[in-house]
Amino acid sequence: MAYKNLFSKSSKGKLVQKYSQYHINDNILHVHIPKCGGTWLKDVIYDCIAGHHRFNFSHRPASVIKQELEIEGYNYDDFNTFAVVRNPWSRLWSSYIYSRYGSEITDLDRIKGIKDEPEPKYKNPYIYVEDDAQENRESVLENIKVGFLQNDFNAKNFSDYVDKVYDLFLKGDNFENYIYLKPQYGFVVDDNKNIIVDKIFKTSEMDKVLDWVYSINKDSMIRLRAKFNPKKNTSAIQTHYYNVYDERLIKKVANLYKEDIELFNFKFKD
């Protein structure tokens, strides 16, 4: 097999990492659901930049990853697989902020300009760029713009954004072309809707993810990498998602992501 020199097998049939400085925790397979903290997790788990490691499948669902691994001569079931899911109301707010700030900022001067956002009233409505990245902020902005152009919908505000997303839903759109809006359950189930990842964590359980990785590989440096790789979010706005919803929007998102809410046991205020 292609992985013979990198791994051995545990008594449970899972891959056990043979450490090298180039292949850290490659027996851990992360099914990366968008807007769920996955970029930070990959940086920490695999000790790499932006998730560029040996088994990086970007935002592909587990079912697709399984097929791609088989083509390369790997067995998906040999890997220790996991995904992280996020409260759907929080995730949609994050998607909106990322889309709005990514698609509307077209020049450097507006990086520090207040957005024309009628609702909600932000305390500090600026796009966020790390201080040490200011000299590279043109490329930072470009990366943000590219990531979410497809999800903007020219929404006037968050309420309008939810309405437009909901209209797509009513028309039968399954959001296959809008990866950041796609329901999360679709990333972790097979065609029969059976869960095919070993572990599912919530974004509030990042410490548990690291504990789980450590329990498998005894990676003594993982906590240190987490400490010196603080969570960063280029779409961060200083407000909580609780504050941007009214009852009408809460119900719409509940309908949009009914399967996620039921499968992962989410409530509006988790």
Structure description:
Helix 3 (88-104) packs across helix 4 (137-148) and helix 5 runs parallel beside helix 8. Residues 18-22, 102-134, 143-150 and 234-238 have low confidence and may be disordered. This protein starts with 6 loop residues before the first strand and ends in a 6-residue tail after the last helix. The chain is globular, with a radius of gyration of 20 Å. It is built from nine helices and five strands; from the N terminus they run βββααβαααβαααα. The protein folds into two domains: 7-86 and 183-227, no CATH class; 88-181 and 232-264, no CATH class. The chain has a three-stranded parallel sheet, with helices on one face. 36% of the residues lie in helices and 7% in strands. The protein is mostly helical and 270 residues long. 33% of the residues are buried. The longest helix has 17 residues, at 88-104.
Topology:
Layout: E1 7-9, E2 15-17, E3 28-31, H1 38-46, H2 62-71, E4 80-85, H3 88-104, H4 137-148, H5 158-170, E5 199-202, H6 206-217, H7 222-227, H8 247-256, H9 258-264
Helix pairs in contact: 3-4, 5-8
List its salient traits:
single chain, about 270 residues, mainly alpha, 2 domains, three-stranded parallel sheet, two-stranded antiparallel ribbon, 9 helices, 5 strands
Listing every helix as H and every strand as E from the N terminus to the C terminus, the arrangement reads EEEHHEHHHEHHHH
Count of the domains? 2
Mean pLDDT metric: 75
Question: Helix coverage percent of residues?
Answer: 25-40%
Shape: globular
| Oligomeric state of this protein | single chain
**Backbone CA Rg:** 20 Å
Order the strands across the largest sheet as they lie in space: 3-4-5
> Which class of secondary structure composition applies to the elements?
mainly alpha
- Number of contiguous helices: 9
Q: What fraction of residues sit in β-strands?
A: 5-15%
Through-space gap between termini: 44 Å
* Unreliable sequence segments: 18-22, 102-134, 143-150, 234-238
